[in-house]
Design goal:
mainly alpha; globular
């Protein structure tokens, strides 16, 4: 739905950093691929604009019900 590959390239993050961000998002949201994609877009845009740092994106603790 979104061009995640372009956003990933534009983020300037390393492959390792991108994998960490994506793993964090997947840990939070589970198997809902649309929500994972949407949240990744939001995180990558926030990183691109400088609203958050990679450390911020990776430091969010997984919520448990």
């Amino acid at each position: 739905m979104f061009d995640l590959e372009q956003l990933k390239r534009a983020s300037g993050l390393s492959e390792e950093q991108l994998a960490g961000v994506e793993a964090q998002v997947r840990a939070e949201l589970g198997g809902d691929e649309l929500m994972v994609e949407l949240h990744l877009v939001q995180v990558l845009e926030a990183l691109r604009h400088g609203w958050i740092t990679v450390s911020d994106a990776l430091s969010v603790e997984t919520k448990t019900p």
